[in-house]
Amino acid sequence: MAASAGTDRAADPAAPPAEGACTDPVRPTRSARAGAWAELLRLPALFTVPGDALAGAAAAGTRPGRRTLLAIGSSLCLYEAGMALNDWADRAEDAVERPHRPIPSGRIRPAAAFTAACGLTGAGLALAAAAGRPALTVAAPLAASVWAYDLALKHTPAGPAAMAAARGLDLLLGAAAGSGGTRTALPSAALLGTHTLAVTAVSRKETTGGSVLAPLGALATTGVLTRLVAHRRTRLPAGRRAAAAPGLPGPNPATGGGPGPAYALAAALGAAYAATAARPYFHAALNPSPPLTQRAVGDGIRASVPLQAALAARAGAPATALLIAALAPAGRLFAKRAAMRKVSIT
Length: 346
Known about the structure:
66% of the residues lie in helices and 0% in strands. The protein has 346 residues and is mainly α. It starts with 29 loop residues before the first helix and ends in a 9-residue tail after the last helix. The model is unreliable at 3-25, 234-247 and 252-258 (pLDDT under 50).
């Protein structure tokens, strides 16, 4: 997905300016090259991706299996393709606003980044095909939305909607791979897409600041989404048209989750989601400076993990929900060890 997330601005103080980067006679070490690619691909943000497919499988009423793993692999590849393509498309803009990034600083050649984007897209589609025709049917428009966002829509009013569509399709990919159908997962995909829409709207001002309405809108959106995933409602098991049509699927006995524990867990995870996203949005609304706006974007991206977990719990899959929730501390630990703590989707 063009983004739903990534590390950003892990500036290398020793990096030469863009004009002289290619003339430096010192060959970068293998460690430096690996670090540049990790920065370009925003590796810590990968921990926000598997929860899409897992939440999709839960919403479809299926247990994660081999096809779900293939869907996760496809999601990771397409996400990374979006990261590489994002920086390739923005290389001229980044040379002015973010000269420390891998491409404008000369640590990665533009052709290499574009080649990586193409290869990762192909790998993502191949993995989706291995998961079955329904999964490929979802992965193809997902890949198209990634490329459309990075190459054409990012700086247009349609940009946030394109990003939201990509994230929603990623959740549907997990549903299609597990059950072959996506109908019961549509409400969960819509909620995750709405969250992504709000984060992307805030991110459009992360280098310049000055936007008050976008953080306020994201804060209100967080409150509504928290209410929807945490509010207990009586539903028939997921998979029945009468249960799925009005909104979020209810607990499904086939997944082993009872209504009491599942809803309690969904409420707790919904609270964790709100705690992760709401405060940074509030601070960015009070002081819409670039640093606070960037922090709000980063925390908004990380908040997708407890939201994914809450959606899985709401669908009656507590074990899957806990597995997704465990990705959040794992991502923070990885980012800390890799010294890549800042996150961006631009």
